[in-house]
Amino acid sequence: MKAMILAAGKGTRVRPITYEIPKPMIPLVRKPVMEYIVEHLVSHGVDQLVVNLSHLPGSIEDYFRDGDRWGCSIAYSHEGKLVDGRFVGTALGSAGGLKKIQDFSGFFDDTFLVVCGDAVTDFDVGKVLEFHRSRGALATIVLKEVPLSDVHKYGVVELDESGRILKFQEKPKPEEAVSMMINTGIYMFEPEVLDHIPSGVEYDIGGQLFPALAAMSAPFYGLSLPFQWVDIGSVADYWNATHLVLSGQLQGISLPGREIAPGVRAGINLCLELDEIEIVPPVYIGSGTFIGNGARIEGPSVIGANCRIEGGAVIRRCIVDDHIRIGELADISGKIIFGRNYIDPSGHYLDVEEADVGWIITDARKDLVMSDTHAMLYELGRQARDR
Predict the structure, then answer these.
(1) pLDDT tens across 110-138, in order?
(2) What Å distances lie between residue 253 and 5, 31, 247, 256, 286, CA to CA?
(3) Domains along the chain with CATH numbers
């Protein structure tokens, strides 16, 4: 089966993380969100994938390459152009991206799947395909019920008894929503749906295509299934998803590394003394990390690879990116530390360099440079003494 992963968005609600990496590459306990998606699709018989790229496209293409590692073929559709030697993304919208691929190669020549590249899910592709074909559908959306207070973040549908979509609302106010059944960004399409998308212009699936299909009474259906679906649409969503993975609440997702203490998993090449630090699980510690005696880490927390947590530091319920040094006087609770950003789950953040708090949080590689310099000076001194 063929599928498309939508990966061109800027991820504005996950900034500042998405200033550095595109949303599909956000690490969910060491693995990019999109990798979970690729693995799931391949396990359900999807063997050909096209990914549309626009915002920071290189990191996705460099990581997934041609897909051989996952047992599938992956191609990329770039939405943008080079300006003065630099790629400038100009996304065509989710539907416009589909149309661009079809205009280029006619890739979509049979029933195909479309999924967003920013959600972890375990939906049954076979059941969706069976429902889609049994209804003779042009388009089918996989639906999920959410609290009324959350409908403003999603597309909302009104269904008849057969599952046919009578009305589609994109991100309505709660008081105006026709239901609490929302669009999960998982779609099954027939190639003819592309006849309803204009070429060469920005066009959105939820905002434009779906309302048009509903208005013309097309064979447009919605299916609600029991399945896991964790959207990474905002910083708060990312925070929540990480905690779910660490606490084992997402079925079928196993934590990386090895268990070095009950509820504590880690990579290799660590420098720490378990008897001299305090760890309250669940916690994951990345490879190559140093944790000094007297440090305390309280879960659910992720400590990235090649970090340096000085003795005396206290970290509670945090996500710490790779190559981060946290000083001995630090007492940090409920934060995401990503690159030079100190982020609250609400999305508010502080640039640690501009705030001049390098004595608390800095790049651990600066310590490595200093260590190398000290080692070189020591060796030069030793050689001078020997002479």
Answers:
(1) 999 999 988 888 889 999 999 999 999 99
(2) 20, 11, 11, 9, 17
(3) 2-235 (3.90.550.10), 262-369 (2.160.10)
